[in-house]
Amino acid sequence: MIFKTDINYRKQSLLKLLVTVQEHEAEIIKALYDDFKKPAFEAVFTETEYIITELKQTLKNINKWAKPEWVLPSLLNFPSTDYLYKEPFGKVLIIAPWNYPYQLAFSPLIAAIAAGNQVVVKPSELTPNTSKIIAKIIGKTFDKNHVECVEGGTEVAQTLLAQRWDYIFFTGSVAVGKIVARAAAENLTPVTLELGGKNPCIVDETANLKLAAKRIIWGKFLNAGQTCIAPDYLLVHQNIKTKLVGFLKEEIILAYGENPEISPDYPRIINEKNWSRQLALLENETILLGGQSNAEDFYLSPTLLDEPSLDRLVMQEEIFGPILPVLSYEREADLEPIISRYEKPLSLYIFTENKTFAQKVIAKYAFGGGCINDTLIHFANKRLPFGGVGHSGIGAYHGKRSFDLFSHHKAVVKKANWLDIPTRYAPYQGKLNSIKKLLKWFS
Ligand code: NAD
User: Fold this and answer.
1) Using 50, 70 and 90 to split pLDDT, how confident is the model at 440?
2) What is the rounded CA–CA span in Å between residue 366 and residue 155?
3) What architecture (CATH level 2) is domain 2-195+390-409?
């Protein structure tokens, strides 16, 4: 079923959503704090304002994005005019994770509405306060037949996945991504999978070490390391390791103080399960800084690990928490066996002043996206696609791409009748050379 394709209805819906999310901004910020002490600054920066900006940009561009797009016709079809019509898929299911629970539910939702779909959103059960406010906003803004929020955990997600959808947009872990892909295959439903991975961060001898340390610490410990594109582990040239580690420690203290537990800017691990998993990753490792924890509110301080061996647990799975292993390398050739032992990551970062080295790394490894001399910020440019490759995901979104992702692009050729070149029609006798020539000239 195709829902409201009327562009004015879509715009009204988005405008209404804009008003409602602005009205509830303080409640969302509080819910994020109640769920895992997400600092208000991070809640505004990475969640609420992000969504408000996205709504405004979508409203500004929706007419342009929704318009049939003229494309250059093929001369083989002469005379014709060719168009891409953007058509809603129909019924869309969005399943969101807990780490940016508001942003990652609403960002795809905005695009799905803009593209004219009917949407069901399932927020994460691990952030119950945010889930409740998401449900409240959606309930207040939309007709149930247009957009509905279904709260709940795994069972609810599986019940939803058992239904037939026209598109599924999933953000979460690789393991659940596979479950979603399997369920989607049952009805040949197209999917976007926004997953995770082990993101390398390389620092070579030529890097501006002080600034690199600042940007690495920011990208790693924002949201207490619970960011899909956070650097997972560092690969540091051995000659600058001691100096860089010194700067990393300084930056942690500058950002969160000597005791991050009392910093208002440092969130908690989402739940007991993930907190225990983090502590298990630290077992028998050499800690350069941090390692303090508190079971009461699932606190784990920003932690630097020294040279964990590659067969240790911490180097086998996505960390997704405030632990940063520092590994050193001697020669460029030492990087490959480490980076390539993992599935293609969602992001890769390289800190260097050596342009050739940076280009070599970019060309050599497959990864979703990344930065030279910074972390995370590729996420912020709406003109860049955001998504993984291989096990870190299928498909990409942001900006106009999000609108396109939730639209079927219907290709239509409008042929004129004033001329009809006869070469293609049977009988073919004597026409082979002409068709060969035509194909050569016009394709
Ligand atoms: P998750 O896969 O455990 O859960 C995500 C969603 O799937 C939740 O809504 C959950 O209820 C649902 N779910 C859980 N188990 C399910 C099952 N068996 N069947 C159906 N649905 C199920 O992920 P998470 O812990 O919420 O998020 C962390 C992971 O997400 C990390 O791996 C991280 O890298 C990744 N992530 C990726 C992005 C991205 O944009 N690529 C963004 C954020 C998080």
Assistant:
1) confident
2) 34
3) 3-Layer(aba) Sandwich (3.40)
pLDDT tens digits along 356-382 = 999 999 999 999 999 999 999 999 999
Q: Is 34 exposed, middle or buried (0-12, 13-18, 19+ CB in 10 A)?
A: middle
Token match 């600034």: residue? 211
Provide the token pair at 227: 């960011």
Q: What pLDDT is stored for residue 441 in this prediction?
A: 82
Collapsed DSSP state (helix, strand, coil) of residue 371? strand
Residues near ligand 1 with C-beta < 6 Å?
Answer: 95-99, 104, 122, 124-125, 153-154, 157-158, 161, 171-173, 176, 179, 194-196, 228, 318, 320, 346, 388, 393
Question: Identical fold at 2-195+390-409 and 200-385?
Answer: no
pLDDT of 85 strictly over 60: yes
Helix 7-23 to helix 25-36 angle (10° resolution) is 60
Over the stretch 320-362, which tens digit does the pLDDT of each residue have? 999 999 999 999 999 999 999 999 999 999 999 999 999 999 9
Amino acid at 278: Q
**Residue 171 CA, ligand 1 centroid: distance in Å:** 6
Q: For domain 200-385, give its CATH number from 3.40.309.10, 3.30.365.10, 3.40.50.1100, 2.60.120.10.
A: 3.40.309.10
Report the nearest atom of ligand 1 relative to the CA of 270.
25
Q: Please tell me the distance between residue 149's alpha carbon and the centre of ligand 1 in angstroms.
A: 17
343 CA to middle of ligand 1, Å?
Answer: 18
Once rounded to an integer, what is the mean pLDDT over residues 244-267?
98
Residue 279 CA to ligand 1 center (angstroms) comes to 21
The token pair at 79 is 């005379």
Residue nearest to atom 15 of ligand 1 (CA): 154
* Residue 405, pLDDT above cutoff 90: yes
**Could you tell me the two tokens for 152?**
């709940």
Residues classed as catalytic: 194, 228
3 pLDDT band, cuts 50/70/90, is: low
| Domain range list for the chain | 2-195+390-409, 200-385
- Closest C-alpha residue for ligand 1 atom 35: 172
Banded model confidence at residue 1, pLDDT cuts 50, 70, 90? very low
